[in-house]
Design brief:
Main location: secreted
Low-confidence stretches: 1-6, 15-23, 65-70
Largest sheet: 2 strands, antiparallel
Helix content: 40-55%
Family: Belongs to the peroxidase family. Ascorbate peroxidase subfamily.
Strand content: under 5%
Subcellular location: Secreted
Organism: Eragrostis curvula
Number of strands: 2
Distance between the termini: 37 Å
Number of domains: 2
CATH architecture of the largest domain: Orthogonal Bundle
GO cellular component, one term: extracellular region
CATH class of the largest domain: Mainly Alpha
Radius of gyration: 18 Å
Length: 219
Amino acid sequence: MKLACLQLLLVAFQATLITMSSAGLQYNFYSSSCPSAEDIVRNKVNGMIDADKSTAAALIRVLFHDCFVNQLIASFAAKNLSADDLVSLSGAHSIGTARCSGFTNRLYPTVDPSLDAAYATQLKAACPSGGPDNAVNNSPVSPDALSNQYYRNALGGRVLFTSDAALMTRNDTAAAVSDAADATGWMARFAASLVKMAAVEVLTGAQGEIRRLCNATNS
């Protein structure tokens, strides 16, 4: 599965270069200066995922973060991203982990009624009120496999975040979740939406910076 995750990210990155070539990016940019660049990246990332399974989820998270669905839909509409893109991208929560502090608002002081009761009990055991900020798998089923299991979790009330549960509160996104739960083509839609996400307001030339730490600017 680690290879599939990596290949998806590489395909998305390559497609982004094609999409954004008119804005200063160029597909196959390193073909002359470093023709083995993609193999080097692939081998390096494979090694990182072998050492730490959370790396696949972390790489995807570099491109987007969690926030409320309605806010995302409003901002995605301005960035040529649709509600369907949001639903497809949310499937990334089929892998990775989250800290208790990211979702205990759904457990305390009262349990969010949209949570499956048995799942809520399981989460309370992992995240007791006032307890340590433990890490919990994003998905209670096959947490290391990027798949459409996330949508089956959402339909059953077994998702962690408020943003995940919010997908079921709108008719359009709820219908898309139901469709994705059974669709064999979800991975292709996820890749296409990831490409669109990666292509939003790309900085080129002297506009950006190569960060020393991914989660903070250099200055």
